[in-house]
Write a structure and sequence with these properties.
Mean pLDDT: 95
Oligomer: single chain
Order of helices and strands: EHEHHEHHEEHEEHHHHHHHHEEHHHHHHH
CATH class of the largest domain: Mainly Alpha
Number of domains: 2
Strand order of the largest sheet: 4-6-7
Shape: elongated
CATH architecture of the largest domain: Up-down Bundle
Low-confidence stretches: none
Length: 509
């Protein structure tokens, strides 16, 4: 298995995805271990001096003016973790929780947090031995760190939490003992360092980026197949048009569409038809899909800075012998970018649903109503379109930006927050809806192409059609269609379609 060495400086979204899927192990670099040891010693030096420093020998939040005696510092950190375990709702899935642990560890190894190295090593042991904390998904406001969800992970490190281990829900101390380790004992600043950061929202956004990248490519493939299925034209994708409005995403999408449709006998068969213009859902695919791609470009730029950022508080600057309390735990940049990407993905869903409607409508498509040869007795894909409409509509309210909301907490000391975890959770719902909507479009588009036989589409699209038909037979009579949609989703998840297109055209833009 591939091993990823974390340094706090160079983690990538691709590596986060690999670890979340348990496709890679994780280890510390020797330089990172040395940085952890130095920063921990710095904390102990502060304790020995006795000067009040936030988070080390004071209370937290609105209680930061309360000085804590040295003999109570360990209890202070344990109490912090216990009292902050207030999360509610369904737990995060395994992939998300693993991404959270990786990102928290990657932040801590930079050496600005003063955390016990044993805590970071145990986090990595959890990843490498498939121990997954049970972390409720609701309870973070996206500032002062993702306190509640990260506390549930920290609780597991001290042996008091719940984890999934070997398929069972068990106490974390049991799982830790099973791998030959011991729960950590929290010392000065350890608890605060484990929970004060943006790891949860960063994990949600990182996984969303990987899934959104797939959606953008699948959307172009679906649009091209639909265009051929309804005998549309590719003239609107002419590069001369795009150069007059040269948004990078628009140019890339138009190039993808032209490549996907090149050599289609279906398209060549109706060059002289009397259709003048296609509807916007076909004609404006470069403009719409391209703009959606721009939202993805933006969030990737934001996360490039965040994933290797130090988001703890306070921060230890050893060279200057200084401790500074700041606000790197605030997730505003993440929240705004995730809300923006949610809108981009929702628009992919919106325009896909409109293309599905065009295939349902014989007035436009000249195909049998609802893509069934014996309509009346059969309803065909009528309600598959209704499901697509429901998904597109649901995404509209999910796209209300969480980042424009804020609610003060901690007696108004923490008076502006990002709601970044809410942005991330909503974003992943929008992505799931969009993926299902594209699966419905693919179900319809493959059926539409079958009505044009013996004419064939392009070699790339025919390879996609063949993959779908291996798992989803041609529709001749009504059947239970949700199974077909699920089968297409499974195909999407394997990347088989994107790889098939790549074998014909090279990498899509």
């Amino acid at each position: 298995m591939k091993d990823i060495i974390i340094t706090g400086q160079d983690i990538t979204i691709e590596q986060i995805n690999e670890v979340s899927l348990a496709q890679a192990s994780v280890s510390l670099s020797q330089d990172s271990l040395k940085a952890l040891l130095r920063s921990k010693k710095f904390v102990f030096d502060i304790v020995e001096k006795g000067e009040p420093v936030y988070g080390i020998n004071t209370g937290f939040g609105a209680l930061s003016d309360v000085h804590i005696k040295n003999e109570d510092l360990n209890t202070l950190q344990v109490n912090l973790i216990r009292s902050h375990c207030t999360g509610v709702g369904a737990p995060f899935d395994k992939e998300t929780t693993r991404a959270i642990m990786l990102l928290r560890a990657n932040c801590l190894v930079s050496g600005y947090s003063g955390v016990n190295p044993a805590a970071v090593e145990l986090l990595l042991d959890f990843l490498n031995h498939d121990i997954t904390p049970v972390v409720p998904s609701k309870g973070s406001v996206g500032a002062s760190g993702d306190l509640a969800p990260l506390s549930h992970i920290a609780l597991c490190l001290i042996g008091e939490g719940e984890v999934i281990f070997k398929g069972k829900n068990v106490r974390s101390d049991f799982a830790i003992n099973q791998i030959g380790k011991k729960p950590i004992e929290l010392g000065p600043k350890d608890g605060l360092a484990l929970i004060n950061g943006t790891a949860v929202m960063a994990a949600l956004g990182s996984l969303a980026i990987m899934r959104a990248e797939k959606i953008m490519k699948l959307a172009d493939i679906c649009a091209a197949m639909t265009c051929d299925g309804v005998r549309g034209t590719k003239s609107a994708y002419d590069p001369r048009i795009q150069q007059l409005k040269p948004h990078p995403g628009q140019i890339d999408v138009a190039e993808n569409l032209l490549s996907l449709l090149r050599g289609s006998n279906v398209m060549n068969s109706h060059k002289g038809c009397d259709k003048v213009q296609d509807p916007y859902s076909l004609r404006c695919v470069p403009q719409v899909h391209g703009a959606c791609r721009q939202t993805l470009r933006h969030i990737k730029e934001v996360f490039q800075y965040e994933l290797n950022a130090v988001t703890d508080n306070p921060l230890l600057f050893l060279e200057e012998d200084d401790v500074i309390s700041g606000g790197n735990f605030h997730g505003e940049a993440l929240a705004l970018s995730m809300d923006y990407l949610a809108m981009g993905v929702a628009e992919i869903c919106n325009i896909s649903e409109r293309r599905v409607e065009k295939m349902m409508n014989p007035t436009f498509s000249d195909l049998p109503a609802f893509l069934t040869g014996n309509s009346g007795l059969n309803s065909g894909l009528m309600i598959a379109h209704v499901t697509a409409a429901a998904l597109a509509s649901e995404n509209k309210y999910l796209c209300h930006p969480a980042s424009v909301d804020s609610i003060p907490t901690s007696t108004d000391k923490e008076d502006h927050v990002s709601m970044g975890v809410t942005s991330g959770r909503k974003l992943l719902e929008v992505i799931e809806n969009a993926m299902n909507c594209l699966a419905i479009e693919m179900l319809c588009a493959t059926q539409a192409l079958d009505f044009h036989r013996p004419l064939k589409s392009s070699a790339a699209l025919e390879s996609v059609h063949e993959i779908i038909r291996q798992h989803v037979p041609i529709i001749e009579d009504d059947r239970v269609f949700y199974k077909d949609i699920q089968n297409i989703i499974k195909i999407f998840e394997t990347d088989e379609i994107i790889e098939a297109v790549k074998s014909h055209l090279g990498e899509l833009k």
